[in-house]
Each structure stands twice: as C-alpha cells, then as structure tokens.
Amino acid sequence: MRRRREREFLLVVRQPTPATTEPSNEWHQLDHRPENLALPGVATGERFVLTPAGREQATATGPFEDLHYANLYWFDDPADPAIDTWAELAESTFREGRRPDIGLLERPFMSFLRRIGGAIAPHVRLTPRAVCFRPVSGMLLDVRVLAPGLAREQLHECYRTQLEDVVPALVDVPGVTSAWSLVSVPDLVPPVWPSREGAAEDEAAILVTLVAVEDNPSTVLSRLRDSGAPWSETGTESGGALFRGALEAITPWQWDWFDGEATA
Questions:
Q1: How far apart are CA 25 and CA 252, in angstroms?
Q2: Is the dihedral of CA 186, 189, 190, 191 positive or negative?
Q3: Which CATH code is given to the segment(s) 5-249?
C-alpha cells in the first residue's frame, strides 16, 4: 500500500541582516535539511527564497511582511509520530550546539496543514506522491485567513471551490507542474514549539495554496494573473490575504540574492 502524504508544515523565516544569508543557508541545506529528510515519516522538505525581485511582485502583511524564506515539509501518514520525531530532532541538535539559526533567523509564522486537494499538470505523468520529488524552479504561495465564525456550509463551499475550481485551473497555466490547497491544523503543533522556536501562535484558520513551477516563478505568477484562473478566490469565507508571491528554489552554495542590500 502506498503511504499518503496528508500533512504538511509551512514555516516563514526572516533574516534580520544580509550578513546572515550564507551561514543560515549553509546550516539549513548542509546540516539541518539532510537530518530532517533522513527521519522516518518525513517524505520530503525544501526551503524557498523570496528574492528582491520576487519581493517587488509579492503582496504581504502581518507575519509575512519582510519574509526571506518559506520552508515546506511533507509528512507521510501516520503523521503524529513523524512530527514528534521531527520536533525532537530540532531539540537534540540544539543540545549538540548545531542550531546557529537561533541567533541568525526569526520565525514569525509556522503552521501544520491538512490537504484539501491537489492536481497535476497534464504533461506531468507522475503519481501524487512522486510529483513532490520532481525538481521545481520555485513555488507560488498564496496564504489567507479564513473569516472567523464560518458556518459549516460556508466552510464546505470554500473547500469545494478549492478542490473543484481553483486547483484544477492552476495546473492549466503554462509553467505549472502541480498545485495543492491546504488548511491549517492547529492541534498537530507540538505544545512547546511556538514558544521554543520563536513563532507566534495563530488561532485563526489559514488557507494555503501552493503552486509548483518549472519556469521562472515570477513569470509564471504573471501568467497566472493574466490568465484569469481562480487563484484562491476571495469570497465570503476569506478574512484577508496574508501573502501572495513567487519564491525560487535554492541551489546549494548560490546564496548571493541579498548581497547588494544594506547591512545596517
């Protein structure tokens, strides 16, 4: 039986100064990420960067303001033991003195997510599990807060729209390989994490749309906007947009995106 990936984790990362770019990425790509991917139940994981050019095109508010990176991990079911082991790795490497990120980075937002639905572009002949291992040039990310106090039928309509209208339309845009709609699951967050890892707890439900791309991410985002495809349509269920933008995949040792920015 194939294991399903029904749980995801999204982390937003800020770096206070460009001087931390190289050490923080060296740690994440060459130490922390390999250890995470070796854990049982962690299907895959990646970090994406919002470059200065991407920042000009993005819209962001609240905890997503001034973000530099977004980390995304996918967990196989059963997710709970995998998440517990994953969280313990963060603490064990801290005890080993292998968490320089604590002094280099800020984490204004983190959330565990449950998949609503996904779609794969017609030219990508892979299974839903395999497509997440397919290389990408980047990821388009849309995050919005669901309005508080939604009636159950309103929430159902939101999920139906994402599954039947939004996600299938996204994979018809040239340069898109797959798309996923997800909703936050607060009860999956290990209790000590928000305070220990420095991320704010957000009790409002979060709706996330991820779009994997194989062309220049900013170009694909422009195509998507021009196509008229429903891109996390704003309806009565929306309590407000937090972020929409194009993030690029990170190539090891090529971490010069912010070299021209002031260090003050």
A1: 8
A2: negative
A3: 3.30.70.100
Residue in the block written with tokens 């460009």: 18
The values of phi and psi at residue 105, to 5°, are: -130, 160
Q: Per-residue confidence of the chain (264 residues) as pLDDT tens digits?
A: 444 556 888 999 999 899 999 999 999 999 999 999 999 999 999 999 999 999 999 999 999 999 999 999 999 888 888 888 988 999 999 999 999 999 899 999 988 999 999 999 999 999 998 999 999 999 999 999 988 878 888 889 989 999 999 999 999 999 999 999 999 987 766 665 555 555 554 567 899 999 999 999 999 999 998 988 777 555 545 568 999 999 999 999 999 999 987 554
DSSP 8-class letter at 262: -
| Residue the block writes with tokens 């008229």 | 228
- What is the separation of C-alpha 92 from the centre of its chain, rounded to a whole number of angstroms? 24
Q: Computed from CA positions of residues 15, 257, 66, 83, in that sequence, does the dihedral angle turn out positive or negative?
A: negative
DSSP assignment of 22-91, as one string? HHHHHHIIIIIHHHHHTSTTEEEEEEEE--HHHHHH-EE-GGGTT--EEEEEEEESSHHHHHHHHHHHHH
Residue bearing tokens 């939604």: 150
Supply the DSSP symbol for 163.
I
Name the residue ranges covered by the structural domains of the chain. 5-249
- pTM for the full model? 0.89
16-30 burial, b at 16+ Cβ within 10 Å, e below that, comes to: eebebbebbbebbbe
